[in-house]
């Protein structure tokens, strides 16, 4: 590009910028247009990111200042309103605070985040405290955002400062439940400390409550505050990173794990975003290490400088999260008494450790895509383990019988464990297990008795599965045996007979004869005993889909299946919660598959031919001895799909009061049909 010098009308004078080009000038002006737009919409992170980009690309500060000066800054009154909103919960200062509020606003400058944080700091202070805090604020340079933000940090108690640094260096954007588990008893009252940081605008608590998803809260700290916290930690020991609490900078981490710097017991957490060159003694001197996270990918693997297993000496390790771990085993000098989460996805591990480890605090274990893993360790002490994810551990042949001691386990994922032949009988001891994912366990031949707590059993594409040495008594269970064509007749009969308000899916070419009323097409006529008039009664339904012409696979959700009678006035089919609200009536008896008052499965099922889809419906206030059931179902594109056959059998006869609400589902007797 050719250097140039000129005066641009209506802009800035750049006659002294010999290394500055027209395209540079235009780009910079556009950047500052973005900055002042984001100032207006209060997007502080975007402002700082753009400003940092400009500063890194263009070194001529005079030009940058000229361009900044060519745009009007936000009005002082707008800045004052932002400060007052957080200091007084109103747009203007309270009586007697006008002069001090204006001085603070002028001193902080025009960045909304600084005004929020300082305003939150002054909120609730007495009139006598304000002058003292303003005097302290005067010692910070005008517009120095880092020092302005640190003003609020300095006012925190030691414990809240510690929590702030933990979040800035390691736990930003994490769920509060997970943070609480990992911290243990480190903080006296974690909720109260988080509340204090939120009230001072140092963090925000994000609430997530998506449809069909669990509700959770997560911690969000703005980028400028993250940078502040990390800089505070860096200054703990500028020249010796091994003496800091947290290691985040990649060069510092490399220096520490390679032994090129002094290591003390100060290091609490390491968070590396890149590969590391490690030896078996890389973490040997870190006796206080609690949180270790190494994130990298398959294309940039870690480098092993020695063949031995990696040695951990810290007895306080609570989190070990290492993607693409390069070694075949781990070695721990001390018991893992405090380990809460072990996450080693895409690792080269063949085994974890030998013998029995005291892992009574272990709650989450994720070894996804560890395709060389041949065995799991003894889990007899893992009595608090909640989640075990072994997806695509294709070399794993069996689960240890000690898994039966993990009685807190509620989610077991074995997707594509293609070498797994059977499950241990001890799995029946897992009385809190509610989800078992066996999809594409292609070598699995049989299932033992499973705990009654299971709500979701997905065995799709278990092509070798033949026997089900179990029964299913949970009335809310969802059973998916799609493409399990080797199931013997006894197993098929068991699934057909299972009583559940959710779906049962299994291979089949026609509606079984046990369904009293059968018909081709999407409707079937049912005779009802006259004694059942004006009562509520339950039915079990079975449908098969017609062959699709385009050979594409389409999916449907439980909420897209409707069952209704010839006229709604004659009979209303309830959802499985037992309610006939306005929406349900308008949709002519939507089968929404609810469990109690809160469980609701959002599984998407494929439209597959030669499969039976079995579910229950309930009719309320039967007014005719002949009911005609119509079935209507839509795919994800809201297109109605054709039904080849359908069938109905009458299950239960009972009266339901108009005001009855089923808050919980009690066990129902097994139905023999």
What's the CATH topology name of the largest domain? Leucine-rich repeat, LRR (right-handed beta-alpha superhelix)
Roughly how many Å is the radius of gyration?
Answer: 32 Å
Euclidean distance between termini CA atoms: 84 Å
Rounded mean pLDDT is 78
Strand content: 15-25%
| Spans where pLDDT lies below 50 across 5 or more residues | 1-22, 36-44, 66-73, 567-601, 653-673
Number of beta-strand segments:
32
CATH hierarchy: architecture of the largest domain: Alpha-Beta Horseshoe
Largest sheet: 17 strands, mixed
What is the count of structural domains?
Answer: 5
CATH class of the largest domain: Alpha Beta
Can you walk through the features of this model?
By secondary structure, the protein is an alpha/beta fold. The protein folds into 5 domains: 23-64; 76-152; 158-226, Arc Repressor Mutant, subunit A (Orthogonal Bundle); 318-507, Leucine-rich repeat, LRR (right-handed beta-alpha superhelix) (Alpha-Beta Horseshoe); 519-548 and 559-574 and 588-650, Jelly Rolls (Sandwich), CATH 2.60.120. It has a 17-stranded mixed beta sheet that branches. A 3-stranded antiparallel beta sheet has the order 22-31-25, with no helix packed on it. Strand 3 (246-247), helix 13 (250-257) and strand 4 (269-272) form a beta-alpha-beta unit. The longest helix is centred in the N-terminal third of the chain and has 19 residues, at 22-40. The radius of gyration is 32 Å and the shape is globular. The model is unreliable at 1-22, 36-44, 66-73, 567-601 and 653-673 (pLDDT under 50). Residues 506-654 form the C-JID domain.
């Amino acid at each position: 590009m050719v250097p140039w010098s000129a005066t641009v009308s209506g802009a800035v004078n750049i006659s002294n910028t010999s290394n500055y080009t027209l395209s540079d000038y235009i780009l910079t002006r556009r950047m500052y247009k973005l900055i002042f737009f984001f100032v207006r919409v209060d997007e502080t992170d975007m402002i700082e990111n753009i400003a940092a980009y400009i500063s890194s690309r263009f070194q001529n500060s005079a030009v940058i200042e000229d361009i900044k000066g060519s745009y009007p800054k936000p009005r002082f009154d707008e800045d004052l309103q932002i400060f007052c909103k957080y200091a007084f919960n109103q747009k203007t200062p309270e009586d007697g605070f006008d002069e001090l509020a204006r001085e603070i606003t002028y001193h902080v400058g025009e960045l909304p985040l600084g005004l929020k944080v300082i305003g939150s700091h002054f909120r609730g202070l007495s009139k006598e405290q304000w002058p003292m805090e303003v005097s302290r604020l005067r010692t910070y340079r005008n517009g120095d955002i880092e020092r302005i933000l640190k003003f609020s940090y300095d006012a925190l108690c030691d414990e809240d400062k510690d929590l702030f640094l933990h979040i800035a260096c390691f736990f930003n954007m994490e769920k509060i439940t997970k943070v609480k588990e990992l911290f243990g008893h480190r903080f006296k009252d974690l909720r109260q400390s988080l509340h204090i940081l939120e009230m001072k605008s140092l963090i925000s608590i994000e609430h997530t409550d998506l449809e069909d998803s669990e509700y959770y809260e997560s911690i969000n700290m703005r980028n400028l505050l993250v940078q502040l916290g990390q800089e505070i930690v860096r200054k703990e020991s500028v020249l010796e990173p091994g003496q800091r609490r947290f290691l985040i900078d990649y060069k510092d981490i490399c220096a520490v794990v390679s032994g090129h710097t002094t290591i003390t017991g100060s290091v609490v957490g390491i968070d590396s975003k890149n590969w590391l060159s490690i030896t078996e003694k890389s973490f040997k001197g870190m006796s206080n290490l609690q949180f270790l996270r190494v994130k990298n990918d398959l294309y940039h693997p870690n480098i092993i400088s020695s063949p031995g297993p990696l040695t951990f000496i810290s007895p306080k390790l609570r989190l070990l999260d290492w993607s693409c771990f390069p070694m075949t085993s781990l070695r721990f000098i001390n018991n893992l008494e405090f380990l809460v989460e072990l996450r080693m996805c895409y690792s080269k591990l063949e085994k974890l450790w030998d013998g029995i480890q005291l892992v009574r605090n272990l709650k989450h274990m994720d070894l996804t895509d560890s395709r060389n893993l041949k065995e799991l360790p003894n889990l007899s002490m893992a009595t608090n383990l909640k989640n075990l994810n072994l997806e695509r551990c294709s070399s794993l042949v069996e689960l240890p019988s000690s898994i039966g001691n993990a009685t807190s386990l509620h989610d077991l994922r074995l997707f594509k464990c293609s070498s797994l032949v059977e499950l241990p009988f001890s799995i029946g001891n897992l009385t809190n297990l509610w989800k078992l994912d066996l999809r594409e366990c292609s070598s699995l031949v049989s299932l033992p008795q499973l705990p009654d707590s299971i709500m979701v059993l997905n065995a799709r594409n278990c092509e070798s599965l033949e026997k089900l040495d179990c029964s299913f008594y949970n009335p809310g269970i969802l059973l998916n045996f799609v493409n399990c064509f080797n199931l013997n007749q006894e197993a098929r009969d068991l699934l057909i007979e299972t009583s559940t308000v959710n779906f049962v899916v299994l291979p089949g070419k026609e509606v079984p004869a046990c369904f009293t009323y059968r018909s081709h097409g999407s409707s079937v006529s049912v005779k009802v005993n006259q004694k059942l008039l004006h009562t509520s009664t339950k039915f079990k339904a079975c449908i098969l889909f017609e062959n699709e012409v385009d050979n594409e696979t389409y999916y449907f959700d439980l909420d897209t299946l409707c069952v209704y009678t010839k006229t709604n006035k004659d009979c209303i089919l309830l959802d499985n919660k037992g309610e006939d609200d306005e929406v349900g009536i308008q949709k002519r008896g939507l089968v929404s598959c609810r469990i109690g008052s809160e469980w609701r499965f959002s599984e998407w099922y494929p439209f597959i031919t030669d499969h039976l889809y079995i579910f229950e419906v309930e009719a309320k206030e039967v007014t005719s001895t002949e009911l005609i059931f119509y079935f209507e179902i839509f795919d994800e594109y809201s297109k109605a799909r054709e039904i080849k056959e359908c069938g109905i059998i009458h299950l239960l006869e009972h009266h339901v009061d108009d005001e009855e609400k089923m808050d919980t589902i009690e066990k129902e007797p097994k139905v023999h049909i």
